[in-house]
Amino acid sequence: MAQDKYLAGKVAIVTGASKLSGIGAAAAIALAEHGANIAVHYSSNAASAQEVVEKIKSLGVQATAIKADASSPDFGTTLVAGTLKAFNTSNIDILVNNAGTAVMHDSAASVPADVWDDVFRVNVRGPFLLIQAALPHMKSGGRIVNTSSIIAKLGSSMLPVYGASKGALNSMSIALAEELGPKGITINLVSPGPIKTDLSMQGSPVAARLERNQHIKREGSTEEVAAAILFLSSPTSGYITGQNLYFVTNMLDQHRNLEPGNDVNLQVHIRQEMNTRRTEQTPILTITSPQGTGETLVAVHLSLLVATDLDIPNNNRYSMRFHAKPFAVLVLQIFRDYKSSRVYGFKYGESQQPLEAGAAVLSLQTEEDKMRQATALRPMQESTEDGAKYTALQNRIVRLEAQLKAVTSGQSVPTKGKGSASETETPQSESPLDCSCGRQIFNTNFSIHYDSGIHWVDLFPSLRELYFQASAEAESKWSQEKRGPVLIGAVSPDSLALAKYHPTPGEAELLMSIFFENVNPFVRVLNKNAFQSDMQRYRTGKHPQPELVDSLLFSIYGLAVMSLESQNAVDMFGLPKEWLLDKYQEAQEIALHRLNFIHSSEPAVFQNFLYYLVFLFERGSYRTATTLLGLAVRIAQRIGLHKDPSWFSYSPWMSEWRRRLWNQLILLEQRAVAFDGTQSLLSFPWDTQLPLNADDGAWNTSLFMKPSEIPSPTQDFTDMTPILVKRHVLSILCPVRQKIRTRPYPQQVQHIEAGFKEATHFFQSVGTDKQGLANFVQAVCEIEFGNLRLMAGQAVVRSGSANSEFLSQLYLESLALLERIASVRNSVPNPGWLWYLRTSPPVFAIAITLTHLCSEPANCHSERAWRQINGFFDEYGKENGTIQSASMAALQSLRETAMLSSGFPADRPAVAYSDDQYLLQSPENMDTDYLIQPAADLFSDMWSNSLLGGSLPTI
User: From start to end residue, where is composition biased (Polar residues) (predicted)?
Assistant: First the structure.
């Protein structure tokens, strides 16, 4: 921590803290050491509690002991009243609910009803009553920490009541986190395993069971638990709530905890000679029979693995026990830990044994698989003269080149030959939802940037002039700027220069935690497991590329700060958000130069460069980000990210990583196209695919996990993952946007309505567990399709064929869309919705509204319009500071012109209308069919996850 007495003046209540050898007393002392005044709760032993009080007072803070019965209904009020009186205060800052009781039983039948009630009164009702009594005195910044137990997770036949009570405490804490989070109060849990106290279970059957599964064969100490309670009570934990910190050493790894039974003992031998070229016939992993006969049951060969993928010490041996089930299950279990793309050479006894249905893919190789392996293992020696045979990979390259030639010459795209399965002809149907544009999103070979032909600014002649003027002013100002954030190029690569940019260890941990909570779920590139492994080596000075880790860390710090609201950044770090962003931008640039990122061919370096571009886009440095994006495209081509990794000898994990890097580049480029009017650089063909993971569970679990396959498309929203929802909506938006280009306005509306109906039909029947998410996604669809309607209408205005009635109707539609956006913004309880201010729907609606106000300043909806307009600019300015794109500068100029015409002040706040409010406040003759009109350019993972805790404003 940056300061030693960071809890000075805080008041804390710690229950169950009367024994110096216990967790409660250790926690109380730890809080006192950092300045907190402590109320020590005890139930009966006043002398022991006084010892703890004297120990705390010797640290220079106030302390008092308060007696209260944890099973009593007035437990909470007694403790709170005694604390307020003892310290002459009206505030309580920290609660540590540590008091608890446990009774062991041989069986469920031996548990009396009154014992059940007693345990639940102390372990569940007591903490709740104390929280209930303390909340009126707890302000923003308050901290609540409840002590649970590993038994709530693992269960124990001897502690069924205790485990159930702690499980209830866990559930209650998570529920309260939802209520208290908006108030700035956090509530978390710590769940100790075996801890050395006078109530230690060492020597008992419960302890023996736990110890069998521990990597660290000892009991934990009370001080170790207290350190965690101290952190969760500190100011640096302000962004952590509803979490449970387990004090265990691998006891949650259930799949390794196989009980004895009808088992087959097998020895798994793993050899690693990665620096030596091995042949296809040399197995790297074998499973032999338990009798020591040396008979090979399963062999996995080096040709099917990537060398860096199997990081296991030489000659390591594992003895595993598996139930006597079909060997297919055995193989699946082993390769859940040690990833492989294929298993073959399967033998059992003297004859070849078929695998059970559903697992045959593990043992069978197709002809295409063998061809891929052969292609990856040997250099291509085939002649390219006429009549010579091409390899499968060469044939595919030829086809792609033919497609590129056909497209650039205006010819029809050649189709694949007989037997091909992965590519299809471009559809030619004219139904509303057919599409002949490039659809990388649908696994064909061309760009997804179907909207690159026109920039939204081009639909407004007056705004277009302001846009070019703002662009010219920005160029001039940029060239003359002497101060401000350093931009990549003229920076020092001095390695010593980075030392001043590193945060304190506590701040670094907080920023990394924020990154993986807020950022990584949406910028879906970094594997958490791999990162943590790298950090362990980095901190001990054993990482072979510390400069690479430095660069990644500064990217993580910058994006983590970017995901915070301005006031939250000040509360957490005591510094303005803009100052922190300047600091980490400079650090990223220095770190990238140290890596020689322009010439590097390492995907990890390119990943850090992509993170830097995400940072620039989210900060609003559009001109610099768009320029550097062109460089990123060329680097990606040079290192082959645009090629299908399955045609090379990459592991499944490495292939997934490369696909994710390319996908992130696509999304960044789409951001530049949609918002800043640039032309796509990705119109050349490529044959890579989208990331395979429909959710990130397997991706973030282990480097040895094979990435999950995309689930089959479903018409039931309850079975949809966020990624599938995104792809479902994009699959409709893409053709709709293309079809409205060349159609008359009535047909455009027809296509938009058909697309909206198709995109939202499966929201009709949703379970209660996903109703909130479904409502949010449907609201986003309404906004995005509504934006399409506005674009179609503005195109009519641009052509000069719109009458006054049409102009008024378009004005009301744009105003209704702004109110819908404001309503959704106010219903999403996190800063993540702020990203939407930098996308097409709100700025396009603002442009239409301002244009109408310039020509007709005095209308019955003027005040309502100005509330939304000023609210938008206030929110945008608060999060973006002085940095803005030429598009936003042009809108600001148009706003000033409209204000001069209308005379409305610039300080009217935005009002989020509900449908009912809107109807009550609208004139009687208003056409309410246009209350909520739908729209969309981007549908990122964040839209589907915002209600579940996402925050980062990403692409």
Answer: 421-431
